[in-house]
Amino acid sequence: MQDQAQSREDFEARLRAIGAQRYHDRHPFHKRLHGGHCTPDEVRAWVINRWMYQSRIPMKDAAFMSRVEDPDLRRHWRKRIEDHDGTVAEGGGIRRWLALAQAVGLDPDYVASGVGIMPATRFAVDAYVRFVREMPLLDAVAASLTELFAPRIHAQRIEGLLAHYDFADDTSLAYFRKRLTEAPEDVQFGLDYVLTHADTRERQDAAAAALTFKTDVLWAQLDALWHGYVEGNIPPGAWRPGEGMAP
Questions:
Q1: Which pLDDT does position 87 carry in this prediction?
Q2: Among 33, 42, 65, 89, which residue is least crowded by beta carbons within 10 Å?
């Protein structure tokens, strides 16, 4: 019967199939980026707009934790905030992303200000933060499971950027190298949580829908980049080549 819960194995396969079909490593912008076909300004536009997403990750995780009553779940989840915010001295993933911004010729303060973010990027990322803040905890955790597929794209990105772009080196790509070890640990906990708590067909369907929603958030950001900077339809208020360059 369709209402019967899937087995743990079948449900995991269902979640992984969503990534295989819908994760943003399939988007033509990433193929263009990793293949060395992006112009310097297209790379800069990607770095600027992706900053919006990077900067909101610890904020959405803090919003999630504010609703969690289970101390064990909070202990596991707060590592995600620490990974991105880091310490005062080290700075974590956010500071590593700003090192990438500087490497591609941008002023890190300009990027961190959020000035020049495309409207579509802002709407997509804000929708994700709102989803995590308002939806059931199971759905919020399920949305994070795009991390199942992240190590693959990080490895492709490191290889492609090193092969094709002069700015790529150990410092500029430190964010992606670090995520190769951080993401698997995070996702193993999240996957086990979803597989354990999605114990009815209704909850499984909701979790699958949440993961699909998150893939849409990531895909929509790249659609906006392609329309704005590959096709040349930069929206009002968005970054324009020559702005926000490093001194």
A1: 87
A2: 89
CB atoms within 10 A of CB 119: 13
Architecture of the domain delimited by 8-230: Up-down Bundle (1.20)
Q: Would you say 194 and 142 are in contact if contact means Cβ atoms under 8 Å apart?
A: yes
Task: Read off the amino acid at residue 159.
Answer: E
Summarize the confidence of residues 1-6 as an average pLDDT.
80
Q: How far apart are CA 200 and CA 206, in angstroms?
A: 10
Enumerate the domain spans of the chain. Answer: 8-230
Rounded to 10 deg, the angle between the 201-225 and 8-22 helix axes is: 10
Helices vs strands, H then E, count in the chain = 11, 0
H-helix or E-strand containing 224? helix 201-225
**Cβ pair 244, 110 in contact under 8 A:** yes
* Confidence at residue 1, expressed as pLDDT on a 0 to 100 scale: 45
CA pair distance 126, 142, nearest whole angstrom = 17
CB proximity list for 141: less than 8 A, separation 6 or greater = 190, 193, 194, 197
Residue type, 7: S
For residues 207 and 140, what is the distance between their CA atoms, to the nearest angstrom?
8
HEC-encoded secondary structure of 75-135? HHHHHHHHHHHCCCCCCHHHHHHHHHHHHCCECHHHHHHCCCCCHHHHHHHHHHHHHHHHC
Contacts of 56 (CB under 8 A, 6+ apart): 125, 126, 128, 129
Residue 192 pLDDT > 50, yes or no? yes
Both tokens of 85, joined, read 């915010």
Largest CA distance in the chain: 64
